[in-house]
Amino acid sequence: MTKEEAKKRTEMLKQLREQHDEGVKATQALLKEMNNTRKLLRQAMKTAPRTVPEIAAETGLPANEVLWHVIAMKKYGQVAETGLDGYYYRYTLAEGGK
Q1: Under 8 Å between Cβ of 50 and 82
Q2: What residue ranges define each of the domains in the chain, with the CATH number in brackets?
Q3: Is the dihedral of CA 23, 27, 33, 34 positive or negative?
Q4: Environment class of 69 (CB within 10 Å of its CB; exposed 0-12, middle 13-18, buried 19+)
């Protein structure tokens, strides 16, 4: 690569970073919010298995949001089902789950 090509490449990358800066910041904020939410959910399940409505009541989060996060955490092995309580599954932190 010549000096001129390297200079053009550097300028192009700079422009791309500037164009996508807002999107990157929004994504970082969303990830931070998701991590904070999941931390709350882990704290709620720390002492005993809980149902989604119990977790929602304890955290003050909407049940649909709790369910979405719990299912995602289950998919990645962070949460496990421990049985049924009426119509609701009870969830607990999985061993080795973060």
Answers
A1: no
A2: 3-93 (1.10.10.10)
A3: positive
A4: buried
Question: Token pair of 24, please?
Answer: 């990157």
pLDDT, one tens digit per residue, over 9-20 is 999 998 988 888
CA distance 52 to 64: 9
Residue 97: φ, ψ to 5°: -75, 145
Threshold 0.85, pTM exceeds: no
Q: Which of 3, 78, 64 is nearest to 35 (CA)?
A: 78
CB 81 within 8 A of CB 71: no
pLDDT tens per residue across span 22-62: 998 999 999 999 999 999 999 999 999 999 999 999 999 99
